[in-house]
Write a structure and sequence with these properties.
alpha/beta, globular, five-stranded parallel β-sheet, 37% helix, 16% strand
Length: 124
């Protein structure tokens, strides 16, 4: 069982990548749980009837609680690592701006500054 956290994906490039991933998992009959925060994304994926995917509509508070738990075999498909280190888990970054060192300055962009240091801490 694969767990996919896609809590920050809207329609766009991240959505296209997620849809391709879910189609690939369905074609291989690999069961997976997908946690989705945005209702419009949930509805759109539900219409596509992905056989092996268990789509779970969630909210921000529940997502933060899940990010705080130690889990295994989770694909964080949302550019953000969990709050705890998880074994056999992967954080997929499709927004490379977060990883650039130039955001090491709080005054330049506070959001990316926080993300940069959060990622730096959990990189291992």
């Amino acid at each position: 069982m694969i767990t996919i956290e896609e809590s920050h994906i809207s329609f766009g490039g991240g959505y296209v990548l997620l849809l391709e991933l879910l189609n690939n998992l369905s074609s291989r009959s690999l069961s997976n749980n997908v946690f989705i925060v945005k209702e419009e994304v949930y509805i759109d994926l539900k219409i596509k009837q992905l056989n092996s995917s268990n789509l779970i509509l969630t909210n921000t508070v529940k997502t933060l609680l899940r990010y705080s738990k130690k889990r295994e075999r989770v694909l964080y498909f949302s550019n953000r690592p969990p709050f705890t280190k998880n074994k056999k888990s992967i954080v997929y970054f499709h927004n490379e701006l977060i990883l650039e060192k130039k955001y090491n300055n709080f005054r330049l962009n506070p959001k990316y500054f926080i993300y940069y240091h959060w990622i730096k801490y959990f990189i291992g």
